[in-house]
Amino acid sequence: MVDKSELDLSAEHIQSVCGTDPVAIAILLGHGLEGLMEGLQDVQSFHFRDLPGFPVKSEPSQNEGVLTIGVLEGARVAFLHGYGSYSDTGILNSMALPFETLTVLGCTTLAMATGVTSVNADIIPGHIISVVDHINLSGLNPLVGAASEGGFMSLAEAYDPRLQRRLRRATVSAGVSFQDAVMMWFPGLTFATAAEVKVARTLGADVIGHSFIPELIVARRIGLRVVMFGVVAGYSAGFANGNPTHASFRAGSQQGVISLRRLWRAFLRVKEEAWSGQTSQP
Questions:
Q1: Can you tell me whether residue 252 is helix, strand or coil?
Q2: Can you tell me the mean pLDDT for 131-157?
Q3: Quick one: pLDDT at residue 2?
Q4: What distance in Å separates the CA atoms of residue 128 and residue 230, rounded to the nearest whole number?
Q5: In the CATH scheme, what architecture does the domain 4-269 have?
Q6: Is the pTM value of this prediction over 0.90?
Q7: Do residues 43 and 137 lie in contact, with contact meaning Cβ atoms separated by under 8 Å?
Q8: Domain residues of the chain, as ranges?
Q9: CB-based contacts of 241-250 (< 8 A; 24+ apart in sequence)
Q10: Contact 125/252 with Cβ under 8 angstroms?
Q11: Over pLDDT 70: what percentage of the chain?
């Protein structure tokens, strides 16, 4: 899936600057959620353009991809933010090499933070959600054509149950609650239509997202454990008078950053339960 020479070069460059202490956890940030980086110490940043194999824009801009490594709540954390995901690049497995690089740096856990729109009257704008499952009927899958690299893969526990329980325990010290949600993924770059929203509701979705499902699949193929949480940036089109725009969606996501940051930092502080071999849901 990746060029090993580029993987080695990127990992070596990062370690030459940051040292070889392992990264405990990484987080992929949706656009507008960079506020989750607040409080990061001992910061080292790398532009994707300087890391072989990382996705880059043909014309550099302020939204180019950046890998930032530092210490937060006593944990060594890597943040992936800016340009790079499928919605930016149009390449389904564009984050494969960055994720592989994380594993070389010692990372085994990936968090994803994203904005979503609600199709459930009980999940209102400003609320925090934990994605426990998703619906992807787009026909898009980054593993198509990669059958020789492992064949069909189960997504039964794509959203790691232990990480979900850890997130739930973090609510105690964070003073922030969240709601479990099934997310239906539409690739964008358009918001779902009112008719598509009706389909999503009928099929059992609670929220609609336009980010990170290809990235989730790639991460699971690589062996990273994943937890996904997000901010409800508004209602979806045709539901509860929803009519999302780029500006309103970004503003709605940013309004939830403080609560999401409190939950994220508490999540880092909470120790994960020992694995018992059980696969029951939280």
A1: helix
A2: 87
A3: 78
A4: 6
A5: 3-Layer(aba) Sandwich (3.40)
A6: yes
A7: no
A8: 4-269
A9: 242/117, 242/118, 242/197, 244/117, 244/191, 245/191, 249/115, 249/117, 249/191, 250/31, 250/32, 250/115
A10: yes
A11: 94
